[in-house]
Amino acid sequence: MIFEDIKNPFVLSSGPSGNFEELSKIIDLNEVGAITTKTITPEPKKGNPAPRIVNIENGLINSIGLQNPGIDNFIEKDLPKIEKYKTKKIISIAGYSPEDFQMMIKKIDNYNIDAYELNFSCPNVKKGGATIMQNLELYRECLKVSKKSTKKPIIVKLGYSDRILNLVEISINEGIENFTLINTLKGMKFDLETGKPILKRGIGGVSGNVIKPFALAMVYTVKQKFPQVSIIGNGGIFDSNDVLEFKYAGADYFGLGTSVMMDPELPIKLINNWEEEYVL
Amino acid sequence: MIKAKILEKQVKNDYMYLKVKMNENIHIEPGQFLMIKNDEDKNMAKPFSIMSQKGNIIEFIIKIIGDFTKKLSQKNENDHIFLRGPYGHGFIEKIDKNKKYVLLGGGCGAAPLLHFEEKYPNLVENIKIGFKENFINKIIADEKVLIENIENKNPVDWLKENNFENIISCGPKGMFKALKTLNKNTFVSLEENMGCGIGMCKGCPVETTEGIKMVCKDGPLFELNEVIL
Question: Looking at the whole model, is its pTM more than 0.90?
């Protein structure tokens, strides 16, 4: 397991909840099992042009583009607030090279944080994110260097992939057995009047309940082959029945992302509901 | 979420008027918006400003342009919709309360201007809202409306014919670009596709002279001078 003493198996996924400044005014984050920061990169990123969001049936497509203040500003401005939450704090990071991951982990490792999530699957940036996966040696090297840089648990976030078992196996061989499955899937929506994509960047990442079957298949595939790994199941969890499906598929923890954008109070409602129906 | 019952609905061409009764009495400042869901399902919410509030009864004018608004327009009286909010800053927080403003609107995006006039009539010097066609009969008083296809001019043309200095505008980007050339003391209320509505998801950026801001959390009202269109 990633965490021995987690309050409950619910994890705020990286991205939709930002760095919790707004969400913490609406719900008590201390009641959530774990929280994951928005992905941080070595340098600030201003993100993609608008429109960055378009709704689809039971989901949405985003092309935020990893907008974030960069590791140094994050440590100075956001981290002091994040450190105070009495929950497991997962820091999501993405870089272009093994040195990037090493540098970020070294800068942040002595703060009051609990784990790292390496984001190898953001579809919305030209470099880094999912593009590292085009070179499996680079991917392996990022994992190796990250593992060496910290004693804290490392979680690898992967997207939907036909070679998911291969990617998981490489990670296991580097001593990392925790995974977040899955990230968004590439998708588009067109404006029927203009014939153009609605997102300024054209292609974005699809999330929401519509991707649940794809996420379940990845969780199931990995857990069947490697029962020893810990998995944060992520993709389309909106109610207790969704949670139950991820549990059956083999997830150990349950990530909440797009559902928090739909209803910021949903994490607490869902945790209470789950505990009433399936735990107590 | 706040549950709201549809008391009245009118649909004409691509436009819809809605009057709903909320099961909670929340206070909405003119300029703020609500995130609306058609049903208690797993679909995302969309942001809308209101044109009027009387206690827990609020009114909307909405253009039917996509799947969401189409579904909303198919609802019947006594059906329910679901709301959260209000979000964003009220206009009153950003403007100079010692001045009077001309409210200049383009289309249904002008709803918050009507709300502003309802709540702060003393801060309003004049109001003109342009619509392509005349659907708003009896919903908005005639003298506030400019039917562009009949009068052959838009609200910015009208503004040029008059000597006003302080403007609050809601409408399409093209209108803001035209306003920028006039060099007046102008505030604009921006619209953008939104995700969460509260600033956390970074889904609704606007480029400003001070960097990227979020329409939902930092706006929706901005000084026209600070916005890079």
Answer: yes
